[in-house]
Design brief:
By secondary structure, this protein is an alpha/beta fold. It contains seven helices and eleven strands. Helix 6 links the parallel strand 10 and strand 11. The radius of gyration is 20 Å and the shape is elongated. The structure holds NADP nicotinamide-adenine-dinucleotide phosphate. The site of NADP nicotinamide-adenine-dinucleotide phosphate (NAP) has 24 residues, from strand 2, helix 2 and helix 3.
Length: 255
C-alpha cells in the first residue's frame, strides 16, 4: 500500500522530511514550493511550484492527485498558506500534520524587544540615525522606507530589486546557514547597533542572535502570527513518527 504525501515546503524541515520519505517505499511524496526564490535548493522528491489558488484550489489539487496526507511544513510566518492548508485538508477529508519549529527565546544578556509587525519594529528604532542589520524577506522591506534616517544592512537570498527608496543601504546575498564568528565580524564591520529580525526559530539563522548577545546589540524581534489549527509537531523527525504511526494504523485497518 502506498500513501501519497504532499509537503507544503520552503523550509529546512520540509526538505529533511522529504529526504526521509524519499527512500521509503510506503510513501509517494511531492513537495510544493511557492516559487519565491530564483534558484531553490534541490529537493529529494518531485517538486511542484506556485500557488494553488487559495484553499479551494488546494483542496482540488489534493483530490485530483489522490493525496492521503498533507504536511504543512511552511515557515512559521507563512500564515496564509497554513490557514489554507487547514481548510483544504478538511474539505478533502484528509489528515493534516503541521510542523512548527519552536520560537527563539531570549537568554540572559539578550536585549530583545518584541513587536507585532515590521512597521512597529522599525518605529521602535527611534528618530536618531542607527546602523541596522535587517534579515527580513525581500518582499517585506517596504516599512524601512518610513525611517530613511538609518543605515540599513539588508541580507536576503535573492537581490532586492528595485533597491529600497532609502539613501543609505547596503545589500548582501546569502542563504545560510550562518556561523556565529562570521556574524560577529559582519556586525562589527558595519558598526551595527540594532537588528530587526523575525522570530523564525531554528538553527540556520540563530547565529546572528548569539553574535548580538556577545556584542550587546539590541534586537527588535517580530513575533510570530498565532498558530491556527491542531497542535503542531516541532521537527521533521516528529512528523515522520506521526506518518509512521498513521501509515501502520491505516494499513492495519485495510483502508
Ligand atoms: P503566505 O503569505 O502564507 O502565502 C501566500 C500565498 O503563496 C499562498 O496563499 C499560496 O498561494 C502561496 N504559497 C505559499 N507557500 C506555498 C507553498 N509551499 N506551495 C505553494 N504555494 C504556496 O506565504 P509567504 O510568507 O509568502 O511564504 C511563501 C513561501 O516561502 C512558503 O512556502 C514559506 O514556507 C517560505 N518561506 C517563508 C518565509 C517567511 O518569512 N514568510 C521565510 C522562509 C521561507 P495560493 O493561495 O494561490 O495557493
Amino acid at each position: 500500500m502506498t500513501f501519497r504525501v504532499l509537503i507544503l515546503g520552503g523550509t529546512t524541515e520540509a526538505r529533511v522530511l522529504a529526504e526521509r520519505l524519499a527512500g521509503d517505499s510506503r510513501f509517494e511524496t511531492t513537495i510544493s514550493l511557492a516559487g519565491r526564490t530564483a534558484n531553490p535548493i534541490s529537493q529529494p522528491v518531485p517538486v511542484r511550484t506556485g500557488g494553488f489558488g487559495g484553499p479551494v484550489g488546494l483542496a482540488q489539487y489534493l483530490r485530483d492527485n489522490g493525496i492521503d496526507v498533507l504536511v504543512d511544513a511552511t515557515h512559521p510566518f507563512a500564515a496564509n498558506i497554513s490557514r489554507n492548508a487547514i481548510a483544504a485538508a478538511s474539505a478533502a477529508a484528509i489528515r493534516l500534520i503541521s510542523v512548527r519549529r519552536p520560537q527563539w527565546q531570549p537568554e540572559p544578556g539578550d536585549k530583545w524587544r518584541f513587536h507585532s509587525d515590521i512597521g512597529a519594529a522599525i518605529k521602535a528604532l527611534g528618530t536618531a540615525p542607527r546602523h541596522v542589520f535587517v534579515t527580513l524577506g525581500r518582499q517585506e522591506l517596504e516599512p524601512l522606507c518610513a525611517a530613511p534616517q538609518h543605515f540599513y544592512l539588508i541580507r536576503s537570498v535573492d537581490p532586492v530589486e528595485p533597491p529600497l527608496a532609502v539613501p543609505n543601504a547596503e545589500y548582501i546575498l546569502h542563504r545560510g546557514p550562518f556561523d556565529t564568528a562570521a556574524e560577529e565580524a559582519l556586525l562589527l564591520k558595519h558598526r551595527i547597533d540594532a537588528i530587526v529580525a523575525k522570530n523564525s526559530g531554528g538553527e540556520a539563522s540563530r547565529a546572528k542572535l548569539v553574535a548580538a548577545r556577545r556584542l550587546a546589540i539590541p534586537v527588535e524581534m517580530i513575533s510570530r502570527p498565532p498558530h491556527e489549527g491542531d497542535s503542531p509537531v516541532a521537527t521533521a523527525e516528529e512528523a515522520m513518527r506521526v506518518l509512521d504511526h498513521w501509515a501502520a494504523s491505516t494499513a492495519n485497518r485495510g483502508e
